[in-house]
Amino acid sequence: MKCTKIVMSALLFSLFTTGCSQQKPTASTTTEPSESTAAATTASTPTPTPAATPVADASSKAEEYVAKMDLKSKVEQLMVPAVRQWNGSDFTEMNDEVSSILSQYHFGGIILFAENMTSDSAQAINLTQSMQISTINGGGTPLFMGTDQECGNVYRLLSGTDMPSSMALAATGDPQNAYDTGNIISTELKALGFNLDYAPDMDVNTNPSNPVIGIRSYSDDGATVGQYAQQFAKGMMSNNIIATGKHFPGHGDTATDSHTGLPQVNKTKAELEDTDLVPFKECIDEGVEMIMSAHIQYPNIETGTYTSIKDGTQVNLPSTLSHVMITDILRNELGFQGVITTDSLQMDAIKDNFSTRDSAKLAINAGVDCLLMPVELTDASVTSQLDSYIQDVMDMVNDGEISMDTLNDAVTRIITLKYKRGIMDASYSDSATNAFIANAANVVGTAASSAVNRTISQKAVTMLQNDNNVIPYTVPENAKIVILSPNGQQANAMGFASVRLTNEGFVPDSASNVVISEEYGRNFRSADNAIAGADLVIVTSIMFDGSNIDFNQSSIIYNMVVLLEHAKSQGIPVVAISTGLPYDTPLLAEADAVLCTYNWIGVPSRDDDWNPTQAYAESLPAAFDVIVGKAKATGKLPVNIYEIANGSFTSNVIWPRGYSLQ
Question: Alpha-carbon distance 509 to 511, whole Å?
């Protein structure tokens, strides 16, 4: 087999090998799967998950079930905790302590994260199914087993397929790709024992400085977001997986991350209806079954206030705790009758400003059904917190602070959805677990799914600039290609792509000096030395969030631009690849060619032959495919790109939404 000889700067070798260790990254009118997706999902699926139950039957069964539940079980059914770590270590395998908690407390669901996963599908299956079995053996109700598998930079299934980000899907210009992505993701989730995905993201990223949404959003246009989100959700539901639209009423115009602060958006209700609510309305009309609320203040809509426990100031009730937002607007005006979940109640926006008791009371009375991560399960001592939390809610129901009707309505909606999606009637046993494991190898992380991933990723690559027709670049014999990447997993991705393109005949085997330097932010001099004598320089850029545009001499962006200019001064053609948010592209304009991939995830873990050993992204390799002519750049900008001046965005649009060089 031909293999590109990849040379790395000696000073960077130790950093590079460190980057190869396993990492755990954090996220149309057509409705039928394409032929490519069909090829990826033809394997049989496990039998324990029945087909969806008709709504009327599900509702009737739920009412009978809820009528037999006691108050404590009803309160517990609202709770969806996480077990990221146990006794200080990642929780990847069931133990007696957690099993006892799941048997004792009849939670409505569990959310799993990357900390709960390895690259072994059997591990994920054993974990999801042992959680279900422990719950049922204790007399509980089958769980919502959920995770955040948005794909792009938010993905959890380390044995699965990291499909393109939401923004990348919209860049393809074909909503069918969103359906196909949802179809592949849900096939893998189902095979691993999940029944719920906290996706798609329905936020409209109108604020380029947004620190948390970014490429998780399809677009800065509400109609586009709605079109792609509903196709993604349909792809999910085609495999009986619950899709969750988030974050209502919209997190796309915030300048604060609700994980670390309490955002405020000063839009009027009319402004909200014109933009942020558009995708939610479209997806509700198309049958989305769950919606997640956002911890955001809208003082022009919700005027109710609360005295913050953090500093005693008055804060407006965020959407999660707002009856106006949840019941008046989402339920009554938009007509959503499905299950509403909070975002994590452990996020600083809620935890730092509201008492645990009051946040539970306000959320339930606002009209939400599921309380996501009300208590973080970390060790056996957590039982005292659980007992206190549950007793507080029970006392509030008994005292009339929360009406029994409100509680019953919430639990009935939860149980109805569980019946509808076959969760209540599925088989949870050792034999069912074995059936999942036997099937997973045919479904999860398959070559067929990877091929679809590569194709869609290629279609997303957007060309904004191509001076002197540098692309496509025909690699000469004995060429030296220098690739400058800011971290190990991006370097891994380009090494993987280089070997693959050599095997496919697009990079000559004699092009023996593919030099990959990483961490240019900390090792500028080594990266600069690597440029000498190059025939082509490729620089990958990362903008993690819209606040990351500080152009000073200590920044990674500054070093990247200087490296770019040094290559140009030596007469070397340069291709710059924007791998995260495309809003950094004005800083790359000195390059001969500028490409966008809308995903900064690369290959987090690899073997000695550059083969990925866990879920990886095809976005950056797709850009390499375009550079050497394996594929054409057919993507189009799904957002407006604004001028950057003095470290800030201006209102001047440099490249408008829909722009591309074909």
Answer: 5
